[in-house]
Amino acid sequence: FYEDDYIKLLLDRESTTNGGLLQMQQQNSWILRARLDAIHYILTKREVLGFRYQTAYTSVTFLDRFLSRRSIDVEKSWAIRLLSIACLSLAAKMEETTLPALSDLCADDYKFESSVIQRMELLVLNTLEWEMGSITPFSFVQFFAEKFRNRTKIGLSRTAHITLATIRGV
Question: Cyclin-like domain: from which residue to which, for each copy (predicted)?
Answer without folding.
Answer: 40-126
